[in-house]
Write a structure and sequence with these properties.
Elements lengths: L1 H18 L5 H6 L20 E3 L11 E6 L4 E6 L12 H11 L5 E3 L17 E3 H9 L4 H9 L3 H14 L22 H12 L2 H7 L3 E5 L6 E5 L11 E9 L3 E10 L2 E10 L2 H15 L1 E3 L4
Antiparallel strand pairs: 1-11, 2-3, 2-10, 4-5, 6-7, 8-9, 9-10
Helix pairs in contact: 3-4, 3-6, 3-7, 4-5
Length: 302
């Protein structure tokens, strides 16, 4: 009987140490691995996202190229000539900004060596020393061609343009080719509505650049605080239509009126690409109204 009690006593304490080893490193080696049953699986949970559904036909637009896509699922809801090649005009600066962000530090100092550029300018002064960050504001807010060339010339124009095309290729922009950082007309420089949606998505994924395209107005300076530039966003819809978060305008005689917009409605985000329009702002406003009144969402089941 005494031996039985000793046996039960031994088994009790053995199990106690086995399941509750405390801080003893020796006992921990043989302890039952209870943690395994509390670990969560590394397998990602399957998330079913709602898909936009179009209920009404497209509105009348003057744009020859159009691509409207719901950003979260990249589901197109409107499209027209989405892979036809157009002149990008200043929408090319989306790629210019992405390359500059990749290649430079935001506080890197650029010395302006080419201030006489045609088109829209932020009025840079020859030999002005200015940060990359302020030049990025110059191209994304004010669409300054001089700012675009200043960024490109900082590493060499040819090298920078090569990187623009490499960036476009990395984003699967198969309809695009770039020859200059400002979007000045060139018979070889082309893009498509679909490709610009890809470029816009890449920019919006960058919180640093995303903040810039949503800026209505800003005053920036050179590094010595002697030269100041007031920059005003060319996108007049920014601040006038609720949900418009800016992005990039573009215009030349050959390109017509271009506008790439970011729009948020009922917690859903959209990219709106308008190319070769007779009135880019009116066309974009029509698309926004169409989204508001037309789109519903369907969540598929597993």
């Amino acid at each position: 009987m005494k031996h039985i009690r000793l046996g039960i006593f031994f088994i009790f304490f053995f199990l106690l140490f086995l399941f509750y080893p405390g801080d003893n490193p020796i006992l921990k080696l043989v302890a039952y691995e209870r943690e395994v049953f509390n670990e969560q699986s590394d397998e990602p949970a399957i998330v079913i996202k709602p898909i936009p559904v179009v209920n009404i036909q497209a509105p009348y637009l003057t744009a020859e190229g159009l691509y409207v896509v719901e950003l979260d699922t990249f589901t197109p809801v409107l499209k027209k000539n989405e892979h036809l090649k157009f002149y990008p005009a200043s929408t090319a600066k989306i790629i210019t900004a992405l390359v500059a962000y990749d290649e430079y530090g935001q506080n890197d100092i650029v010395t302006v060596n080419q201030a006489t550029v045609e088109g829209q300018l932020m009025e840079l002064i020859p030999s002005e020393r200015i940060t990359v960050e302020n030049l990025l504001y110059g191209i994304l807010v004010h669409s300054g061609n001089d700012a675009a060339f200043a960024l490109a010339n900082h590493m060499g124009l040819k090298n920078f343009v090569e990187k623009m095309n490499l960036k476009a290729k990395s984003l699967s922009m198969q309809d695009s080719y770039f020859t200059n950082p400002a979007g000045l007309d060139d018979s070889l420089q082309v893009t498509s509505p679909y490709d610009l949606a890809l470029a816009a998505r890449a920019l919006l994924q960058n919180e640093y650049l995303r903040k810039m395209v949503g800026t209505k107005e800003i005053v920036i300076s050179d590094v010595d605080y002697k030269i100041f530039h007031r920059l005003t966003n060319i996108n007049k819809l920014l601040g006038e239509i609720q949900g418009i978060g800016g992005l990039k305008t573009g215009y030349t005689e050959l390109a017509g009126e271009n506008l790439v917009s970011f729009y948020r409605h009922n917690s859903h985000d959209y990219i709106i690409v308008i190319l070769k329009s007779e009135d880019r702002f009116e066309d974009t406003a029509s698309v926004v109204n169409w989204i508001d009144t037309t789109i519903t969402y369907f969540t598929p089941e597993l």
